[in-house]
Design brief:
mainly alpha; Rossmann fold; two-stranded parallel sheet; about 5% strand; about 130 residues; 4 helices; globular
C-alpha cells in the first residue's frame, strides 16, 4: 500500500518500489481497500528485498514500514540512501470478522496515506527550493 500511495502522491519526484523478506501474494484486503481509494494494486507483484539488492539499484530513500513488534525483522538495505522507518500495523495480522478486518485495513491504509502525503509535501518542498 505504501508503494502505491507514494507513486500516486508524488510519483513525479519518486519511483517507489516495495520488497519484503518473504514475498508472497498480495493481501486481498489491501487490494480491496486501495481499490476503494481509486488505486488498483491488483496486478502488482511482490518481490524479495534480496532481488532488489542484487539488481544494483541505488535509492535516495529506503523506507521501512514494519510495525514495532516486527522491527527487528525489517530489512537493512546497504548504500548511501537516507533511511526512514514508519511503523504501521501489518494488514495480514488483523483479527476478527471479515467486516472487522476490512475496517482495520482501511484504518491502516488511511494512516499510510496521511504519512506519505505529509512526507511528500515536506520532501517536495525541499526539492523545489534546491
Amino acid at each position: 500500500m505504501a508503494e502505491a500511495w507514494l507513486n500516486h502522491t508524488c510519483g513525479e519526484y519518486f519511483e517507489a518500489q516495495s520488497a519484503g523478506l518473504e514475498p508472497g501474494a498480495l493481501n486481498p484486503l489491501a487490494v480491496e481497500v486501495m481499490a476503494e481509494a481509486g488505486i488498483d494494486i491488483s496486478k502488482k507483484k511482490t518481490q524479495a528485498v534480496f532481488d532488489v539488492f542484487v539488481s544494483g539499484q541505488l535509492f535516495a530513500y529506503v523506507i521501512t514500514v514494519c510495525d514495532e513488534a516486527s522491527a527487528e525483522k525489517c530489512p537493512i538495505f546497504p548504500g548511501p540512501a537516507t533511511r526512514l522507518h514508519w511503523s504501521f500495523p501489518d494488514p495480514s495480522e488483523v483479527q476478527g470478522s471479515e467486516t472487522a478486518k476490512l475496517e482495520q485495513v482501511r484504518l491502516i491504509r488511511d494512516e499510510i496515506q496521511a504519512k506519505i502525503e505529509q512526507w511528500c509535501e515536506e520532501v517536495c518542498l525541499q526539492t523545489a527550493t534546491m
